[in-house]
Amino acid sequence: MAAKKLSETFSKSLIEEVGRWGCMKQTGVSLRYMMEFGSKPTDKNLLISAQFLHKELPIRIARRAIELETLPYRLSEKPAVLKVRDWYLDSFRDLRSFPDIRSTSDERDFTQMIKAIKVRHNNVVPMMALGLQQLKKEMDPKIVYEDLHEIHQFLDRFYMSRIGIRMLIGQHVELHNPNPPPHCIGYIDTKMSPVQVARNASEHARCVCLREYGSAPDFNIYGDPTFTFPYVPSHLHLMVFELVKNSLRAVEERYMDSDKVAPPIRIIVADGLEDVTIKVSDEGGGIPRSGLPKIFTYLYSTARNPLDENTDLAADMGTMAGYGYGLPISRLYARYFGGDLQIISMEGYGTDAYLHLSRLGDSQEPLP
Q: Which of 39, 238, 278, 325 has a CA-to-CA distance to 231 between 20 and 30 Å?
């Protein structure tokens, strides 16, 4: 079913309100602030947090809804993108129609509502990927996709904003957990072992590789398993999973028909004063220099796209490759808390990925 035009689905007053809120200033928070504020989840602090989100979330959501209406190459008209726009407008309406939060009871009701908003937006990434697939099918194949700078810049802003919205909602909801895991403040583990998280993510990636190919290279992790620092384990898991998955796939495909034993992936965790750096090294043949600019674009993938065959979005998100989204989104997760992701390649040999995570935790969220 095709999504309806904006004016057919939403009232004129709501559309005008979105325009007003989209012009307001966003307020960023740092990992350190989230940690310090959340360390005492009293009713008073939860009330303050809910009041902040009640004002902040509509601003962030309105900005994205406005952008979704004005995308280049008629991307805004694609059915999948219209669906995402409607999710954003529905969430804006839910937030704006919620009354002022004055009591603990109000705060609990608000928390249930933002929890539902987070669930509503669960499929935004595959749905936007589907919208881009719909666009690609209509475009001249001669167009070089990494040249579509406007679309890539929009998606960087869009997904960075989404990471922030989901972090703020998830953090607030998790502060209500009566039995948080040890050392955890909401989503943040104050004593996270990067070696342990990297091991779990690598084992997860290896399982996916085994399922896809029937075999998988080994991996070795080097680093101090007792070293810990405050970070969001789910973010780190996602990033390391993606990097190791790419390396396993490259090595597996290079050695598939070879008599030689596939060399293991090497994962090195180094703790510096400013950064914790995780290096993922493989001997999967590397990426040609001409291909390097493409790896952080959203319309590039060397594997078949699962959405081609599964336009109902039933595709398993753990599939080895295909969305072409893993690396650019991993880099956004790294940058969200002041880190970065770099890829260095030796064509004919292999690839090194350097994931930098800021130890300081005091950089503000990037606010697109």
A: 325
Average pLDDT of the chain, as a whole number: 89
pLDDT(231) > 50: yes
Angstrom distance (rounded) from CA 259 to CA 336: 43
Contact residues for 137 (Cβ-Cβ < 8 A; gap 6+): none
3-state secondary structure of 70: coil
pLDDT of 302 above 80: no
Query: What count of Cα atoms within 13 Å lies in the side-chain half-sphere of residue 167?
Result: 26
pTM: 0.90
CB burial string 196-230: b at 16+ within 10 A, e below:
bbbbbbbebbbebbeebeeebbebebebeeebbbb
CA 236/CA 187 separation, integer angstroms:
12
Report which DSSP code applies to 30. Answer: B
Q: What phi and psi values does residue 290 have, to the nearest 5 degrees?
A: -65, -25
